[in-house]
Amino acid sequence: MNTQYEAVIVGAGFGGMGAAIQLNRLGYDNLLILDRESDVGGTWHVNRYPGLAVDIPSATYSYSFEPNPHWSRLFAPGEELKRYAAHVADKYDLRRFMRFGAVVTGAEWDAEHAHWTVSLRDSAPVTAKYLLTATGFLSQPRKPDIEGVDTFAGAVVHTTDWDDDCDLTGKRVAVIGTGATAVQLIPEVAKAAAELTVYQRTPIWVSPKLDFRVPKALQRLFAALPLTQRIARLAGTAVLELMMVSGVLHYRQAPLANKLAEQWCRAHLRRQVRDPELRRKLLPRYTFGCKRPTFSNDYYRAFGKDHVHLETSAIRRVDESGIVTADGNRREIDVLLLATGFDLWETNFPAIGITGRNGRDLGAWWRENRFQAYEGVAIPGFPNLISLNSPYSYSGLSYFTTIESQMRHIDRLFTAMRRRGATVFEVTSRANEAFLDRMTDRIGDSIFALGRCATANSYYFNPHGEATLLRPSSTVNAFREAASFPVDDYSYA
Ligand code: NAP
């Protein structure tokens, strides 16, 4: 049986494109990139709700090898990210590998032929020597299990499925959720709606957003002298690194950094919200950093408007035309906006059924043996699989840091494999266990172990209460290890 492709990559977002660029650099040209959506960009293709913008400085939230001198703002709006994704796909000639509307239903390791068989919902399975999953962390929208949502007669819109025809002007609108998405959405909805009620279960830490328009002259300078933008990128990355390492990961050694960040957010709340009762409701009760904080200059201000209401009583049910809360109040609404986020652990680890050697099911194995992945990319029992969105894979605050350190890992691994004349790799259990032990130790110093996180409802924690999403090391460490891990941590055949 012939193997059709050298590699199949699942996902045409920035992670999948980074993997494809790296494989191309290594000389692999027979690739297939599958994506269930209709175009490139992953998150930035799917999300297009009002207010969408990146909240990591754009010079940092982009590939270091493909700087874009034309970001219009320090924090670019969503459609610029989507355009950037299209530009990368075109410039690196990746579209020839891409197949859209391709829903992958599962993948199975075929030991006899030493390749992966990838099943698709609407077409014949495909086979590939290597499987790289780049399905994202936030790609399975969560519909809330609130009684009666399906009975609501008006429009119900999840933020990942924004309906451009749904005009909110003059409408009575409800938003459920106060995560990063809601923080961006709410000020925009407040501008159009006649009444807006925000249903908050857990308040979120909000930092001021030091955003500004990038002057055309500076954009021209970045284009003419790329080194200047590299310096801007380095500065952005250094600030994020400092925030992550000192404020979150090394809480035991440097609790002050975290406390300063918390004070910074408290001061923002005090400045923008005069009403003490409203302020009390908006103030988080968990330690800063347990959950991903947000950045906004107009979120709190929105609640100062007469037609915007914050509801903190739990939702009891939704009926045909309104929402009833636990305190017995009922509010009539025309449109229900669900900013309820994503299922991570339940449906995203892994996002597709993956069956490895000897029938090992990745999802079941993770649940029975703790969530784990060597260097955030490889799992014993799964030969020739690179799982880019794995436990401990997310490093730093910009996703591009993660992507580029994973590209380095792929480079080193495939180079080592080919030097041995091999075509199959598999991480050893010994190396995987040592990595897991090291990550577990390091988490002990972090805010996740030492902070008050129980009430944060944070997706950084898996259902067993372990914070296994973020890699608890500096990005410098992640990059260094990606370029220098012992190649004998893998076996080759
Ligand atoms: P999220 O952070 O998970 O927030 C979901 C919100 O919905 C939470 O407030 C949650 O309350 C609430 N919720 C969920 N189910 C509910 C229910 N049954 N009843 C009442 N409330 C419910 O999701 P998100 O806001 O979409 O953000 C997810 C991530 O996307 C962010 O952390 C960030 O990484 C990313 N993001 C990034 C940007 C950017 O600018 N780069 C923008 C948006 C999002 P609880 O907290 O109580 O669970």
Produce a short descriptive summary.
With 493 residues, the protein is of the alpha/beta class. It folds into 2 domains: 5-139 and 344-492, FAD/NAD(P)-binding domain; 149-210 and 236-338, 3-Layer(bba) Sandwich (FAD/NAD(P)-binding domain). Helices cover 33% and strands 17% of the residues.
Name of the CATH class of the largest domain: Alpha Beta
Number of helices: 14
Query: What percentage of the residues does DSSP assign to strands (E)?
Result: 15-25%
Radius of gyration: 23 Å
The tally of structural domains comes to 2
What distance separates the N and C termini? Answer: 19 Å
Largest sheet, if any? 8 strands, mixed
Can you tell me about this structure?
This protein has 493 residues and is an alpha/beta fold. The protein has two domains: 5-139 and 344-492, FAD/NAD(P)-binding domain, CATH 3.50.50.60; 149-210 and 236-338, FAD/NAD(P)-binding domain, CATH 3.50.50. The protein is 33% helix and 17% strand. Strands 1, 2, 3, 4, 5, 6, 17 and 18 form an eight-stranded mixed sheet that branches. Strands 7-16-8-9-12 form a five-stranded parallel sheet, with helices on one face. Helix 1 runs parallel beside helix 11. The model has no long low-confidence stretch (mean pLDDT 96). The structure holds NADP nicotinamide-adenine-dinucleotide phosphate (NAP). InterPro entries: FAD-bind_Monooxygenase_sf (IPR051209), FAD/NAD-bd_sf (IPR036188), FAD/NAD-binding_dom (IPR023753). Residues 6-223 form the FAD/NAD(P)-binding domain. This is NAD(P)/FAD-dependent oxidoreductase.
